[in-house]
Specification:
36% of the residues lie in helices and 21% in strands. The chain has 472 residues and is α/β, with parallel strands linked by helices. α14 links the parallel β8 and β9. The structure holds S-adenosyl-L-homocysteine. The site of S-adenosyl-L-homocysteine (SAH) has 20 residues, from loops. S-adenosyl-L-homocysteine (SAH) binds next to loops.
């Protein structure tokens, strides 16, 4: 199996200093499962490519091990894709042969090691279990341009379908350490084959390599779960630790605390219950059968949706893994009878990235979420929701900033919650809503939410968008 790394940063041959591998020599390292070779198919001042070729020895792999029983099992032990398609062995080899580069150190070119340079990584064959779309979902949020080409099972038999093999090219301007780190973690995630024992130390390895990017990755749950070979207790520990390490501005870094804080301000009004009740009645009113709850938090709305059989399919999504876990627990998803279980799913994911799971729903509820998104995230969310997920109806609620002066416990000029990036007046929310509606082909209706004050309006506000309908 093969990985190539190319740079066009001049002088490109400096790649040798970054990798600590001299371009003029072939270098080989013995691994327990075979040999790892590094060589340079091209090395000029304009362009330099290093190749890591891992030569897996299928006999060494099974030596001293009992394989699956039976004749077919015997064959499978020796004849499989391990030597050819990039997999965890490549990652292990990379971690060993490029050990120093992975730490970001370079004896001769430290400044260059710290500098983002144009890099292209190619994996001519990789098994993308979960489909090419997954490869994109893993690498695109990290800023890579992803080029994928499906590979046939056998070029002579184009009719043979079902190949999960692809060739993958990733390009970005990043430090070499960043690229190597992403490959090191994500190649085994794509491979998803259980072949080595995972223990607590794998969590440490993952958290160390994931530092600075994994906590905010929209697919962190999938990455962690697959990296740790789906060992549930390890996965949970790792995700919880990641949540603690998430950057303070990571969306929903401490949603549990956040809920309390906001509710303390609003409690005298029982506002949240009213909000959920209103949203529910809108969803019933538009006759939605399939519903998204985006930024579902700990699942307050989900609980009501689940209790009403009108809703045949319910998907809750939140960026905070802890919230997702709490919601799953509170809803007792694992104890639901089979028929109910198929109605609902609660998943971790970010609203900033297009997500196929969100397509094809009748309606989406976005309750007290947009004010948690900063300007850039809000802009991404607008397209994710209205352009890609495109539910027929969308219900959005957000605080009405004008009303804040009436909260006795809220100091002047403060938001209701410290994670809020903005709180809009009625006019601001109306302007934003109308802009989205006209941009994406929806009509919108605005309504106050909660007891209305003659001057300041209601404490919260709600917009209902409907696609392709003329305003009544
Ligand atoms: N809708 C819930 C929770 C509101 S709190 C309720 O009404 O009770 C806001 C929620 O938005 C938090 O749970 C937070 O984790 C989530 N959130 C913030 N940014 C997000 C993003 N980019 N993607 C998905 N969820 C996000």
């Amino acid at each position: 199996m093969l990985l190539t790394l190319t740079t066009t940063h001049r002088p490109a041959t400096d790649l040798g200093f970054l990798l600590h591998k001299n371009p003029v020599r072939l270098q080989t390292e013995e691994m327990t499962f075979g040999k790892a070779h590094v060589f340079y198919p091209e090395a000029s001042a304009d362009r330099c490519t290093a190749s890591l070729l891992v030569d897996v020895d299928p006999v060494a792999l099974v030596r001293g091990r009992r394989g699956p029983a039976g004749e077919a099992g015997q064959l499978q032990q020796y004849v499989n894709d391990r030597p050819y398609a990039a997999n965890s062995f490549l990652s292990v080899a990379l971690g060993s042969i490029f050990r120093t580069a992975l730490t970001g150190k370079s004896k001769e070119r430290q400044q260059l090691a710290d500098t983002p340079i144009p890099l292209v990584a190619k994996l001519p064959v990789i098994a993308a279990r979960g489909g090419g779309e997954l490869v994109t979902r893993l690498f695109e949020p990290l800023g890579y341009t992803v080029t994928l080409a499906p590979l046939p099972l056998d070029e002579d038999f184009p009719g043979w379908v079902g190949s999960s093999y692809v060739s993958l090219e990733l390009s970005a301007t990043v430090t070499l350490q960043t690229l190597l780190t992403h490959l090191y973690v994500l190649i085994p995630v794509l491979d998803n084959e259980k072949h080595y024992w995972v223990g607590e130390d794998e969590i440490e390895k993952l958290l160390k390599r994931g530092e600075g990017w994994l906590a905010d990755h929209p697919e962190k749950e999938l990455i962690v779960s697959r990296y740790l070979k789906r060992q549930r207790s390890l996965t949970r520990t790792a995700l919880e630790r990641l949540e603690d390490e998430a950057s303070p501005e990571a969306e929903g870094a401490s949603p549990t605390a956040s809920d309390d804080e906001e509710q303390k301000v609003e409690r005298p009004l029982g506002l949240h219950e009213q909000r959920i009740g209103t949203v529910l009645s809108v969803l019933r009113g538009v006759d939605a059968k399939t519903v998204l709850d985006l930024g579902c938090g700990e699942g307050k709305l989900l609980r009501h949706l689940l209790a009403d059989q009108q809703f045949e399919r319910i998907l809750g999504m939140d960026v905070s893994f802890r919230s997702v876990e709490i919601a799953r627990d509170k809803l007792k998803l694992h104890q639901l009878p089979e028929r109910q279980k198929t109605r609902i799913e609660v998943v971790q994911g970010s609203l900033m990235y297009r997500d196929k799971r969100l397509a094809g729903f009748d309606a989406a509820a976005v309750v007290e979420v947009i004010e948690h998104l900063d300007a850039a995230r809000l802009a991404a969310f607008e397209r994710v929701l209205f352009e890609f997920a495109q539910p027929r109806h969308v219900v959005i609620t957000t605080p009405n900033a004008e009303y804040n002066v009436l909260f006795p416990t809220l100091p002047a000029g403060h938001f209701r919650h410290r994670d809020h990036r903005f709180e809009w007046t009625r006019a601001q929310f109306a302007a934003w809503s109308e802009q989205q509606a006209s941009r994406f082909g929806y009509t919108v209706r605005l309504a106050p939410l909660g007891p209305e004050d003659p001057t300041y309006g209601a404490p919260s506000q709600l917009a209902t968008f409907s696609r392709g309908e003329t305003q009544a």
